Amino acid sequence: MTTAPQPTTAVSNPPVQPMDLNLLPSDVIRASATYDLPEPSRQLEKVAKLIDISKCIGCKACQSACVEWNDTHPEVGENVGSYENPHDLTAEMFTLMRFEEWVNPDTSDLEWLIRKDGCMHCEDPGCLKACPAPGAIVQYSNGIVDFVHENCIGCGYCVTGCPFDIPRISKVDHKSYKCTLCSDRVAVGQGPACAKACPTQAIVFGTKADMIEHAHTRIEDLNARGYDNAGIYDPAGVGGTHVIYVLPHAEKPSIYSGLPDDPRISPLVEGWKGVTKTAGMAVMGIAAAGALLAGFFTRGSRVDDHDEQEAERLVEDDLGGPDKGTGAG
Amino acid sequence: MVKYSERGDHIESTEPVTVSRYRGITRINHWVTAASLIVLALSGLAFFTPALYFLTALFGGGQVTRWLHPIVGVILFFSFLLLFLQMWRLNLPRPEDKTWVANIGELIKDNEEKLPELGKYNAGQKFVFWAMTVLILVLIVSGIMIWEQFFPDLVTIPTRRVAMLVHSLAAVGIILVFIVHVFAAFWTRGTIRAMTRGSVTGGWAWKHHRKWLREVAGRRTQGPAE
C-alpha cells in the first residue's frame, strides 16, 4: 500500500485506492502532561484552514458536513430569533456559524457578520498546557491540535486553558470535544469536511504558507473594494493559529461575535501550571522529607515519671485526699 | 466553670491518672475527616502534576478519580464542619498564646516548664485548627466553581481560571498544614492515643495542657464525673 500524501487542498476528490495513514503517533510534537515525548523523526508541512469571512454566505454547509463526517448528533434546537443554531458549540457540534448584526459607525450601514467558530488550532495551545491527563491532548508537527478521547478524564481543565472558549465536555461520556481539523481525513490526504463542503470556498485548506499567500490576495481584493482595514487573523499571542481568518475589519476582531482581540494563554493559567506547580511540589516535598527526618532523628517531646507523679498529686489534691480507687470512668 | 476544657472531658482513672480528651463520636468524626483529606490529597496531587498522575490508579483510573475527588471534598466539608462546631470555642486565642509563641524555642528544647500553662489547645494546635478552617472554606468554594460535572456554567471562564489557581494554592497550603499536624502529633509523644483510645496520660496533660488538667480535675470535686 502506498502512503497517503500530505493534503494541500480540500477541493480535490479523494483517491479511491486504500492508503496507509500519514499522520502518525510519531508525528506528535507535544502531548499533555507528558515529559518524555520521543523526538519526531520528521517535520510535516504546517497546514492551515483559512476562513474568509467576506465570502461566507452563512449557509451552514460546513456545520452539516462537520456533523456528517464526525457522526455527531446535535439536539434539535429551537429558534430564538437568530440564525445561530445550535446556540453555542456543544460536545456534538464542533463548529458553529455565529451571526452578528453590526452597524458600521463610519457608514451607518448594517453589516451582517457571519463567523464560523471552532477550534483555532493554536501553535501554543492553552488546552494542552492546562490538561492534567497524559496524552489526552496532542499537537502534531503539521499544527493540528487533537483530543485523544481514551485518555480524557473530563475534568474541564482544557476549558479553563483555552483562550477561545472552544472545548465542550460531553454529559454522556464525560470527555472533551472540539474540532479535530479532520485529523482523520488529513491522515489520508484529504482536507477538512467543512472546507470540502463550502460552496463559496470561503473555507479553504492547505499548507499554512499557501493559505497566508491566498489571504493576501483576498486582502488586496477587499482593500480595492473599500475595506481598508481588511487583514489576516493569525494571532501572535498564541504563537499563530492553524485556523486563520480573513477579516474585512481586522482592526477590531471582537465585532465578529466576540473573537478575542489579542488572545493569549491567561497568566493565571500560566501561573497555575508553572510556578505554582514547581514551587508547590518543592515546598511540599521539602516539608514532607523534613518532617520524616525530624520524626526519625529527633527525640521528640516525652512525658516522664515526674510528670505523671505531678499529675497524680494534682488530681489527688483536688479530691481533697487519696483517691478511693473508683478506677475508670 | 468551663473555660479550658469541654464539659465531657473527665478523669478516667487516678492510679495512674488518665484523662478523657475526645469522646467516641469526635474521634470517628476526626478520622472520617482525616481519611477524606488523605483521599483528596492523593487524588488532587494526581491532577496537580503529571509526575503523580499514576496515583489515579489507586482509585480506578483518571475518570473515576475526576468523579471522586469533588464528592469526597463535600464529605470532608461537612465532616470538618461537625468537628468545627465541637472545637471552635476552645480554639479561640487567649493571652497566654502570645507568650507561648514568643518562647517557642523552649518547646523545641523540651523546656516546657518555662512556657505558660495552657488550656486544651496550644497556639500551634489553634493555628492548625484555624488554618484548616480557612483553607477548607477556600477549597470548597473554589472547588465548586471548577466542578465541571455538576457546575459547568456556575462561573465565567475568567473566574474559573482564578478559582483554579486559588484551589491549587490552597491545596498546597492544606497539605503543608496536614504535614505540620501529623508531625506535631507524632513528635509530642503520647498525643496520638487521644484520637485512638480517646484518653491521654495524666503526665501528658500535666506537661502540655496543665490548665486543662486542673479544670478537669477540679470538676471531680463536685462528685465523680460519670
From TrEMBL, chain B:
**What highest taxon heads this organism's lineage?**
Bacteria
Q: Report the EC code(s) recorded for this entry.
A: 1.17.1.9
Q: Where is the Cytochrome b561 bacterial/Ni-hydrogenase domain?
A: 21-198
Localization terms from the record: Cell membrane
Annotated transmembrane regions: 31-55, 67-85, 127-147, 167-187
Q: Which cofactor does it need?
A: heme
This protein's membrane topology, according to the annotation, is: Multi-pass membrane protein
The GO terms this record gives for MF are: formate dehydrogenase (NAD+) activity
Keyword Metal-binding attributed: yes
Keywords in UniProt for this one?
Answer: Cell membrane, Electron transport, Heme, Iron, Membrane, Metal-binding, Oxidoreductase, Transmembrane, Transmembrane helix, Transport
Note whether Transmembrane helix occurs among the keywords: yes
Q: Which InterPro entries match?
A: Cyt_b561_bac/Ni-Hgenase, Di-haem_cyt_TM, FDH_cytochrome_b556_subunit, Formate_DH_gsu
Enumerate the PANTHER family for this protein: FORMATE DEHYDROGENASE, NITRATE-INDUCIBLE, CYTOCHROME B556 FDN SUBUNIT, FORMATE DEHYDROGENASE, NITRATE-INDUCIBLE, CYTOCHROME B556(FDN) SUBUNIT
**What family classification does the UniProt entry report for this protein?**
Belongs to the formate dehydrogenase gamma subunit family.
Q: What is this protein called?
A: Formate dehydrogenase subunit gamma
The species this protein was found in: Paracoccus albicereus
Lineage here is: Bacteria, Pseudomonadati, Pseudomonadota, Alphaproteobacteria, Rhodobacterales
